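User: Here's a structure from my thesis project, written as structure tokens. My advisor, Dr. K., wants to see whether a designed sequence matches the one we expressed. Can you design one independently, without my sequence as a hint?
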């Protein structure tokens, strides 16, 4: 099996249910990973929308997630720390935690990108996607992604 990321609420290139968007409860979907590369210590999850009119829009940044957790439960609190381990960064809504899909028009793609790292980044909570990506350099053992789509009714 290859390193993979999945969700119980949407599959690859399927529509993200409105519960997980600004049109619903705006809570994070449950995500699961398996078959991690050998030597994986921590995970980084970044969700962004490359179809946003202003350029790629960051919806969620999580890091220092212990690899053995195997995933994130639905509705991760919008706090600095993830209850099961890990930290959350700032999204482009200028808030900590998950900010669900809320496209102004059309159908947008949401890339949930998961990285397996050979270390903990040991960054403080509240870092940006760019800060996390810089810290990850030279530590990525593998990457996978799950892409969902959403358009407002």
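Assistant: Designed independently from the structure alone:
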């Amino acid at each position: 099996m290859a390193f993979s990321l999945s969700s119980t609420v949407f599959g690859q290139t399927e529509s993200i249910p409105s519960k997980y968007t600004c049109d619903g409860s705006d809570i994070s979907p449950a995500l699961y990973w398996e078959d991690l590369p050998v030597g994986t210590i921590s995970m980084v999850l970044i969700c962004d929308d490359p179809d946003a009119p202003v350029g790629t829009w960051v919806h969620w940044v999580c890091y220092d997630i212990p690899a053995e957790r195997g995933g994130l439960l639905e509705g991760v609190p919008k706090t600095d720390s993830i209850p099961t381990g890990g930290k959350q960064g700032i999204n482009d809504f200028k808030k900590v935690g998950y900010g669900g899909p809320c496209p102004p028009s059309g159908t947008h793609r949401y890339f949930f990108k998961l990285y397996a790292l050979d270390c903990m980044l040991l960054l403080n909570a509240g870092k940006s996607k760019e800060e996390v990506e810089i810290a990850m350099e030279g530590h990525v053992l593998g990457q996978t992604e799950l892409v969902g789509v959403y358009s407002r009714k």
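When you compare it with your expressed construct, this may help: The mean pLDDT is 96.
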